[in-house]
Amino acid sequence: MAATTRTLELQLLLGPDTVVPVAGRFGYRSDRPYEVRVAFVSQGRTVTTWVFSRELLLAGLRGPAGEGDVRMRPFRDAVGLRRVHIELRTAGSACALTAEATDLAAWVRATAEVVPPGEEGRFLDLDAHLARLFAERN
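Now predict its structure.
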């Protein structure tokens, strides 16, 4: 199994003029070639982890993407810096974060070195994933 991990500084948007820095530890593994994991870290501890598709992340760097719990779109901030707006939703709440687009794009390029986009099926062990899913249900 090959993997890449990088911690990026994100901004949690609390209001129109209020942002709080948050560390997002982005992880990608060749044995789970379709998914990206982002662990949100505060004071050295993982607060929560979100899992979504690498394809969504790639699309969110180029334009609005996502229809469900995770939505993304690129934009330019007040000083002209390219950023990506990331919205995470649960049944009762939502949060909005931003990341520097160049940092996020660099990490996505690192994932392409692990598994080239479009070749995920070659790396997926479907039997192992099905066995894990069935084991979790019992």
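The first helix runs from residue 54 to 62.
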